[in-house]
Amino acid sequence: MSQTTQAPCVAIPPDVLAFAARQAVSPFLPAVLELTNRVFPTAEPTVRLDDDPELPGDRHILFEVQVPLDVSQAIAAQRDWNDGLFRCCPAPQVCVFRLSMELVQG
Predict the structure, then answer these.
(1) Phi–psi pair at 28, nearest 5 degrees
(2) pLDDT in tens, the chain (106 residues)
(3) 46-51 sheet: strands from edge to edge
(4) What is the distance between the terminal CA atoms of the chain, rounded to a whole angstrom?
(5) What is the pLDDT at residue 3?
(6) CA distances for 89 relative to 8, 27, 31, 32, angstroms
(7) Helices (DSSP H) in the chain: which residue ranges?
(8) Model's pTM, two decimal places?
(9) In 3-state terms, what secondary structure has residue 28?
């Protein structure tokens, strides 16, 4: 009998949903979340709004993950996530999404 793993249910906060609607990226949120779960299957991502500290008013939807990867694995995972983002979302709108990866001990 095979065992299936189910992606964790991630709650997307109301402020993120409202921001996504204003940025016209709401239809892409589920695909970006699925991408994050696929690239980081052991992580429990959190989704939140992120304000750029250097550019007032510059906000993004941030997907945060804590993962037990070494540096080379993290670089490869970041590349996979970036490549997947362009498949999930039209190029002009990918800049709304960001990934934050914290490397932790496994």
Answers:
(1) -95, -15
(2) 434 445 557 899 999 999 999 999 999 999 999 999 999 999 999 999 999 999 999 999 999 999 999 999 999 999 999 999 999 999 999 999 999 999 999 7
(3) 46-51, 59-67, 97-103
(4) 28
(5) 44
(6) 22, 9, 8, 8
(7) 14-22, 29-39, 71-88
(8) 0.90
(9) helix
Tell me how far apart the alpha carbons of residues 88 and 25 are, in angstroms, rounded to a whole number: 11
Per-residue confidence (pLDDT) for residue 84, from 0 to 100: 98
Neighbours of 39 (CB within 10 A): 24
71-88 and 29-39 helices cross at what angle (nearest 10)? 150
Length of the chain counted residue by residue? 106
How far apart (Å, rounded) are the C-alpha atoms in residues 58 and 15? 15
Tokens linked to 36: 């994050």
Distance separating alpha carbons of residues 38 and 84, to the nearest angstrom: 10
Residue appearing with tokens 């709304």: 96
